[in-house]
Design a protein that fits this description.
The protein is mainly alpha-helical and 112 residues long. It is built from three helices and no strands. The protein is 57% helix and 0% strand.
Amino acid sequence: MIKDSPNPPLNSAPLHADAHRAISTNPKRSAESALPADGLFTVRTDLDAETLLANASQDLSSVQILAANLAFEVDGATRDVTLGICRMLEGIQLLVDRTLDQFETQNPMAKF
C-alpha cells in the first residue's frame, strides 16, 4: 500500500526565514560584532603571533604547491611567470618559517 504522504507536512516558514537572513546582503549586526563595511575578511584579534604565523605558513605552502602544479601545465612566458611566483612564495615561506623557529627557541616547552 502506497501512502499519500510519507512524512507529515513540514512547516518550512522558519527555515525560509533563516535562509533569507543567512543570504541577506545587509544583515543586522549587534554593536559589539559590527565589522567594517569595506572588509570582506577579518582576522580575529585574540590570536597570538605564533598562531597567525603557523596559519600563514600553511597557506603559503598550499599556494606554492598550486603554483608549482600550474607551472607544469603551461608553457612559454606563462610558465616563466608562474615559476617566478613559485620562487617568490618559497622565499616568503622561508621568512615565515624562520620567524616561527624563533618562537620555538624562545619557548621550547610551549608545545607540551
